[in-house]
C-alpha cells in the first residue's frame, strides 16, 4: 500500500477522489456493480513494477544475476517467460546501467499481452499503427528476432522522439518509423501486412491507479470523441491487412463503447472480418460484453477478452484478435 496509513483511511481517500467526478463514479457503479469496492481497492494499492527482458541484448538469467546483485528481487510470471515482477524502487531500477544499455524495458504486465496475442513471426510484414513510446513495438521486434519488417507509426513528433530513443536503446534493427495520421498511412499501404497491432488512444481507465489525470478529465463527452477516432483507426488498420492476416485491437480502458462497441462497429462494416479465440495461461481473462446499456453487440464479441486489474495485479486492458477471411 502507498504510505503507512491504515487501509480503511486509504480506501476512503480513494473513494472520495473518484467520487468527485460524478460521471465517472456513476459509470463505474453501473459497469462494476458489487465489484466496485474491489476496483477502488486496486486503485489505491501500490501498483507492482514489471520489466520485460530484452533478449536482443541479453539472456534472462544473466539479467537476473546482474539485478539481484544490486538488491532487486525478481519473480517469474506464468503468462510470459520474459516478464519479471520486480521488488525494489522503480526509480532506482530506471537508473541502472542495465536499463541504460537496453537490457530490459519497464512495462506493465498487461501491456505485454497484446503483442503475445498478435504473435508476430520472423520475416513477416507487421504494422504498429499507434506505436509510441514503443513498449509494444520493441516487444514485437524482439519476437520477430529483428527479422522481417516492422512499421512503427505515430502522429506525434514528441512521442516519436521517445519511440526512436527506445528503439535505439533496445537494439531494434528491423523497424521503420513513420510520422503520419494513422488513417492516411494505413490507407496508402493497401493490403500489405501479415499482422497489425492497433493499441488505440483511449480513456485509459485501466491505468487509473497510476494516473490521477484520468479522474480529472473523464467525461462521457470525451468518450464519444475517442470512439470516433477509434472507429476510424480500426477500419484503416483492418484494411491494411492481407487476406488471412491478423489484427489485434487493444485498449487500456474498461469502457464498453471504446472496446466491444468499436469491434462490433468493424464487424458490421466489414463482411470479411471475424474474431479469433485466444487464451494465455496465467492471465484471468473475462469474455467481452455482448450487452451494455441499450446496445446489443454481435454474439462473436464474447471472443474478445477483458483483463480486470483487481483480478490480475496489472492494469486493466481489452483485447480483440481479428482476422481478415478474404
List the helices and strands and how they pair.
Blueprint: H1 7-19, H2 22-32, H3 36-43, E1 49-53, H4 60-69, E2 73-77, E3 80-87, H5 90-94, H6 97-100, E4 104-106, H7 113-118, E5 125-128, H8 135-143, E6 149-154, H9 157-169, E7 175-179, H10 182-189, E8 193-199, H11 213-217, H12 220-239, E9 241-251, H13 260-269, E10 273-275, E11 285-287, E12 291-292, E13 295-296, E14 305-307, H14 309-312, E15 317-324
Descriptive report:
With about 325 residues, this protein is α/β, with parallel strands linked by helices. It folds into three domains: about 35 residues, no CATH class; about 60 residues, Sun protein, domain 3 (Alpha-Beta Plaits, 2-Layer Sandwich); about 220 residues, Rossmann fold. The protein contains 14 helices and 15 strands. Strands 5, 6, 7, 8, 9, 10, 11, 14 and 15 form a nine-stranded mixed sheet that branches. It has a four-stranded antiparallel sheet with strand order 2-3-1-4, covered by helices on one side. α10 runs parallel beside α12.
Amino acid at each position: 500500500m502507498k504510505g503507512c496509513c491504515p487501509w480503511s483511511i486509504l480506501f476512503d481517500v480513494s473513494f472520495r477522489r473518484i467520487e468527485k467526478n460524478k460521471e465517472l463514479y456513476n459509470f463505474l457503479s453501473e459497469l462494476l456493480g458489487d465489484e466496485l469496492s474491489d476496483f477502488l481497492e486496486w486503485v489505491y494499492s501500490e501498483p507492482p513494477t514489471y520489466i520485460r527482458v530484452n533478449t536482443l541484448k541479453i539472456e534472462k538469467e544473466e539479467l537476473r544475476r546482474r539485478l539481484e546483485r544490486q538488491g532487486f528481487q525478481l519473480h517469474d510470471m506464468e503468462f510470459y517467460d520474459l516478464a519479471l515482477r520486480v521488488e525494489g524502487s522503480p526509480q532506482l531500477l530506471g537508473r541502472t546501467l542495465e536499463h541504460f544499455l537496453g537490457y530490459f524495458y519497464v512495462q506493465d504486465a498487461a501491456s505485454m499481452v497484446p503483442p503475445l496475442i498478435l504473435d508476430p513471426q520472423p520475416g513477416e510484414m507487421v504494422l504498429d499503427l499507434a506505436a509510441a513510446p514503443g513498449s509494444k513495438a520493441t516487444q514485437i521486434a524482439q519476437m520477430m528476432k529483428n527479422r522481417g519488417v516492422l512499421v512503427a507509426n505515430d502522429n506525434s513528433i514528441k512521442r516519436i522522439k521517445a519511440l526512436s530513443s527506445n528503439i535505439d536503446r533496445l537494439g531494434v534493427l528491423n523497424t521503420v518509423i513513420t510520422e503520419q495520421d494513422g488513417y492516411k498511412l494505413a490507407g496508402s499501404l493497401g493490403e500489405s501486412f501479415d499482422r497489425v497491432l492497433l493499441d488505440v488512444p483511449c480513456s485509459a481507465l485501466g491505468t487509473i491507479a497510476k494516473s490521477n489525470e484520468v479522474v480529472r478529465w473523464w467525461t462521457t463527452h470525451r468518450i464519444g470523441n475517442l470512439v470516433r477516432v477509434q472507429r476510424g483507426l480500426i477500419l484503416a488498420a483492418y484494411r491494411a491487412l492481407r487476406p488471412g492476416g491478423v489484427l489485434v485491437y487493444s485498449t487500456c480502458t474498461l469502457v464498453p463503447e471504446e472496446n466491444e462497441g468499436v469491434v462490433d462497429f468493424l464487424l458490421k462494416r466489414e463482411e470479411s472480418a471475424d474474431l479469433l479465440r485466444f487464451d494465455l495461461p496465467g492471465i484471468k481473462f473475462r469474455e467481452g460484453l455482448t450487452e451494455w446499456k441499450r446496445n446489443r453487440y454481435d454474439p462473436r464479441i464474447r471472443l474478445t477478452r477483458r483483463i480486470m486489474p483487481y483480478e490480475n495485479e496489472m492494469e486493466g486492458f481489452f483485447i480483440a484478435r481479428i482476422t481478415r477471411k478474404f
